[in-house]
Amino acid sequence: MFPNREEEMRERAGTGSYEVRTMTPAEVGKAIGWARAEGWNPGLRDATCFLTVDREGFLGGYLDGDLIASISVVNYGDAFGFVGCYIVSEPHRRKGYGRALWLAALPHAGNRLIGLDGVPAQLANYERSGFELAYRNVRYGGRIDAHSEAVATTGRIVDIGEVPFAALATYDRACFPALRDEFLSAWTTTSGHRALAFMAGDVLAGFGVLRRCHTGHKVGPLFADDAGVARALLVALAAGTGPEPVFLDVPEVGHAAVALAEDLGMTPVFETARMYNGPAPDVALERIFGVSTFELG
Q1: Mean pLDDT confidence for 117-124
Q2: 38 pLDDT exceeds 70?
């Protein structure tokens, strides 16, 4: 519970006993289920991987003891945090519970720069809390033919287990605002996730992870030196998915990433607004062909 917010929560949330506290792993799973109901199509094992980041950062709003709302405010080190999983269950919306949860949870990030991927309809609400639009992310979806021609490029695709983890973490850090070794280790090795890397000689030139979702599969992250490497990885990752759709969350500012998705016949199905409560972090956007996950950045 957050005692300093208790009175404010009572005022904003109306009648009933409403409190905010850390969710149990099972309750995090319930929140992921809400995300599925919202059409966000999470991965089947997302909750397990998410909890490796910041166990205290998954918070729930409880009305008379029942979980009715969720949010994650996960901290990556001392400088960066990310907000996600922000959902109020349908019967309890527009009653102040979500706002009360937001106010109670956000201080968990302290003075860190905070990022989020919000649905466009909520952009104005996030702006009122000091967040500014950096760019849009567009989810592309479609069937990727396993025989799609990969752009000729020098190198080879290997299982990610063949890459020294230190090299993988260094590459990831160039594309993400903070180190996230525990998450990266779990994300690339969890059952049901397929992770491949592209080696240009002895140098890592990109990597990607495909995971099964409630509908089809998602690829994320997809980080690569150039579009040729990204295409080779995406086609290889999609091999074996058959007629099922594959989804890729693409930063719209990455023109090469957008062109790659469209060239493979994928079409936009969803979008988010990437926002920060301060200056956008300095990352290699030109290498980001697919976001890891909208929930954790």
Answers
A1: 91
A2: yes
Please state whether beta strands 193-200 and 156-159 pair in parallel, antiparallel, or not at all (unpaired): antiparallel
Extents of the domains making up the chain? 3-111, 138-290
Evaluated on CA atoms 279, 124, 248, 57, the torsion sign reads: positive
Task: Report pLDDT for 278.
Answer: 97
Mean pLDDT of 126-136: 96
Residue with tokens 């990109």: 206
| pTM for the structure as a whole | 0.91
> Which residue, 124, 33, 123, 115, is CA-closest to 70?
33
Buried b (16+ CB within 10 A) or exposed e, 116-138: bbbeeeebeebeeeebeebeebb
Cα gap 86→70, rounded to integer Å? 5
Contacts of 53 (CB under 8 A, 6+ apart): 74, 75, 76, 180, 182, 183, 296
Q: Given pLDDT bands bounded at 50, 70 and 90, which one contains residue 146?
A: low
Backbone angles phi, psi at 111, to 5 degrees: -95, 15
Residue 235: HSE in the Cβ half-sphere, 13 Å Cα cutoff = 19
* Domain spanning 138-290, CATH class: alpha beta
Q: Which CATH number fits domain 3-111: 1.10.10.10, 2.60.120.200, 3.40.630.30, 3.40.50.720?
A: 3.40.630.30
